[in-house]
Amino acid sequence: MNTRELACNGIRLHVTEQGEGPLVLLLHGWPELSHSWRHQIPALAEAGWHVVAPDMRGFGGSEAPEPIDEYTALHVVGDMVGLVAALGEREAVIVGHDWGANIAWTAALLRPDLFRAVAALSVPFRPRGPLPPLAAVRRAGLDRFYWIYFQEPGVAEAEFEADPAATLRRILYGGSGDAPQREGLALTLPEGGGFLTLSIDPPALPRWLTADDLGTMAASFRRTGFRGGLNYYRNLDRNWALLAPWQGANLTQPALFIAGTRDVVINSPIASGWREAMAAHVPNLRDAVLIEGGGHWIQQERPAEVNAALLRFLSELPTPVR
Fold this sequence. Notes:
single chain
């Protein structure tokens, strides 16, 4: 694997890449880095793909603009459009996990000419609702939902940056399939508590997360802080407003969805009815792969199964335009 920096959409993106052939972009989520794709990059490259995994805007080695409103979905989709151009390509398959899944779905919806297929991990396609997201969760009585907690600049940053290694240990363990159900990651926070209040610091790292992996990620967040990633959440309502022209639009490219059966997201209120929504709005969904016992960090927890699903999906796509 090689790394380099590319100018994309007016900012600098740090990317990890390997292989030659048709382009596949791998978009990480929160709180992660391109390192979360360490098991997928070599497997897809060996199968004949040019695999590129950026540190997303605001994360890792990529630039982190100061203004909150420069982290909208349109900005980040614009980064991916710019990345395809910077790589000298005309189209790509776009794959995302967590927030990267949101961006991958949105990129495919907005630019079907450029993103010829889409795969999303952990976060299903969600059509634009009748209310802004924060208003919707408040109406549902979820005033302590983590989206709300993340809105005030500096609050979650202070909690997470007090000890980045412990923060990542707690979040990665708590959201995984290894955590006992009662000790899983809580998305609704206790009154007066923070995101980590109900989490536990595991006595040992799960088998899929080595000390070196954790050290790599913790060192990066110790340097950058958590502000960039949290700013994605601070644009939830702004994204809703910006995407009004695509209200009711369907995503028609070949699509794949992968999740663990113990993923806190697909089992939470925000994903209620995800199967029906995907059936209605993603008519070319080729498969929905649910990995028994897997948690939210599915490409790290179950790399062999995720790689097999991705490679099967990619192998069935038409030959790309080069």
